[in-house]
Amino acid sequence: MSNPTLDHLLSRRSVSANSLTEPGPSAAELEQILTAAARVPDHKKLVPWRFVLFEGAAREEFGQVLAEVCRAEETDPGAFRLQNEAKRFLRAPVVIAVVSRITDSPAAPEWEQILSAGAACQNLIVAATALGFGAQWITEWYAYSRGVRAALGLADNERIAGFVYIGTPKEKPEERERPRLADIVTSWRS
Ligand SMILES: Cc1cc2nc3c(=O)[nH]c(=O)nc-3n(C[C@H](O)[C@H](O)[C@H](O)COP(=O)(O)O)c2cc1C
Q1: Could you give all domains of the chain from N- to C-terminal order, each with its CATH number?
Q2: Averaged pLDDT, groups of 10, the chain, 190 residues long
Q3: d(CA 70, CA 74)
């Protein structure tokens, strides 16, 4: 029997950031997408994530930050690389930084809080795709850069779980090979 949620999960594909274009989600759609992301499992209700939105002119402004950090952190990046960094966030109408934030909790160890942030990234993608948009979860170099951390004002207990790019797909992505269940599923036996 067909089920729309399952059909979506069984057919969803990421759309490369380079294959995204306008329009992006409306304000109401973006609120739905973010609300879905904030509904992920969260042991001890610590809310171990937060979201930073990049829309409109902020994407170009943050591109300048990326180019400056790239120049400071990399050896001789070259003009072409710096131009690309300046345009990086213009690949999609909306980019959402998912920030994992850890609270000291003996009942919900750090690992579980990080997993919850990963689930938030996936819910962003699933919700955006359900609304007909394309989305991709990306880290690239700037998720791990000290300079970008500083520019985003991340606290010591915070890390980037990913940047989720959302927009309209320019083309439908081709299916890609998936692991065979026989290779990854076992039944436990005593
Ligand atoms: C934590 C994480 C980081 C990722 N970073 C990148 C990245 O920097 N660049 C990239 O092309 N894909 C990255 N990916 C992979 C894409 O999100 C996506 O899985 C891939 O394009 C395959 O598409 P699919 O979701 O349809 O399988 C990352 C995935 C995860 C889970």
Answers
A1: 13-55+91-170 (3.40.109.10)
A2: 93 97 98 98 98 98 98 97 98 98 97 98 98 98 98 98 98 96 97
A3: 6
